[in-house]
């Protein structure tokens, strides 16, 4: 939490406190010089999945309208993952299982079970949130419709190819999900000769966002892996495909394709050192842990908040159309629009005040913190250019006439042109009143006749 002294006087002997469920769980004493900003770190250990709600409170500030900041932290539930391996022995061992095991020991958000492809029963994957197809030489045809339905209903698949893979089988499976195709192989498996390197990592996708502890504008710095062998991938001709990782030559390394309520993430690399040195790179474990975590759930963790002064917009992965917004004890009916990834919920929210907003969609309840714009805490004056920009964005001006440069005749002409058509509004008003009086008389007459009968 960052606190800034926006005033002209120093601040001393004030406190910033954290409240969770009405109980104080942390506090700092603070002193700030004019214009100074300080960061304060509060630690919350959630006892259960779901939503952690609370407030950050400033104590001792005379101007108290902005002394409370609401927050909502979403803690997603555990994900159950089925890891399906190929029965055939490979020249090198896959590193995906050890990476998941390390994640399980250090983080309770993932549970996984490992099986061989021949041990999988038809439809068994329905009992899991996510499915990893690791190094299968082909996708059994009798799985196709079941896997298609699994993804369509919200399941997630992470696909890793085999160096002995049958491209035709892979592409038949991809086509069921409108997920592009493999059309070539690049390099030589197990050669350890670099044909390219992984491209620079760029945030903007949930798999990579927040994976590194860095400043907001700081670039991601990591030793980029060398690539020895991979499948060349062509994405589908639609907007549902997102590139997560690529090579320096712009070939796709990891891609996401949405289908129905779920998603499939396709890697063009396998998970052993014969493909690249990524499996022995420190990036491997956190990268693919986050990838399967993302693939296996439509839930996303972290802060959930909305800033007053802007239109509330939210996309919820649900088919429910009867949605209600509840804040500070008042219900509101938003505009609901169906999209490919769920329902888009929109509401102006001009009458809202800070608090905890609840989105009620059937049996689901989503919480979002609502706070005022931090700019409302700045009492500095604006220069002419700044307030002119604000007026241009928020004030609608029409028919401005510079009278100094006009003769009387030209001025009369401009005035008549500006009001042209507006005088007929008086007639519309009188006609509307006439219809209203007529309707009232007819209604009373009809009621009188009905009573007499």
What does this structure look like?
The protein contains 7 helices and 26 strands. It folds into 3 domains: about 1-75, Immunoglobulin-like; about 80-295, 3-Layer(aba) Sandwich (Rossmann fold), CATH 3.40.50; about 405-453. By secondary structure, it is of the alpha+beta class. Strands 8-7-9-10-17-16-15 form a 7-stranded mixed beta sheet. The chain has a 5-stranded antiparallel beta sheet with strand order 3-2-5-6-18, with no helix packed on it.
Features:
453 residues, alpha+beta, Immunoglobulin-like, Rossmann fold, 3 domains, 7-stranded mixed beta sheet, 5-stranded antiparallel beta sheet, 7 helices, 26 strands, disordered C terminus
Secondary-structure map:
Elements lengths: L1 E3 L6 E10 L2 E10 L4 E3 L10 E10 L8 E8 L3 E7 L10 H11 L3 E7 L13 E5 L9 H9 L3 E5 L6 H10 L4 E7 L8 E2 L28 E2 L1 E6 L6 E6 L5 E8 L2 E6 L16 H12 L6 E2 L1 E3 L4 E5 L6 E5 L2 E3 L2 E5 L2 E6 L7 E7 L2 E8 L12 H11 L13 H11 L5 H29 L1
Parallel strand pairs: 7-8, 7-9, 9-10, 10-17, 19-26
Antiparallel strand pairs: 1-4, 2-3, 2-5, 5-6, 6-18, 11-14, 12-13, 15-16, 16-17, 20-24, 21-22, 21-25, 23-24, 25-26
Helix pairs in contact: 1-4
Average pLDDT confidence is 83
In the CATH hierarchy, the third-tier topology of the largest domain is known as Rossmann fold
Overall body shape? globular
Structural category is alpha+beta
CATH superfamily of the largest domain: Class I glutamine amidotransferase (GATase) domain
Main pleated-sheet profile? 7 strands, mixed
The domain tally reads 3
Q: Helical percent range?
A: 10-25%
Please identify, by name, the CATH architecture of the largest domain.
3-Layer(aba) Sandwich
- CATH class of the largest domain reads Alpha Beta
Rg is: 31 Å
Q: Give the neighbour order of strands across the main sheet.
A: 8-7-9-10-17-16-15
* Ends apart, CA distance between termini: 75 Å
- Per DSSP E runs of 2 or more residues, the count of β-strands stands at 26
Proportion of residues in extended strands: 25-35%
Number of helices: 7
Q: Which ranges are low-confidence, i.e. pLDDT below 50, for 5 or more consecutive residues?
A: 448-453
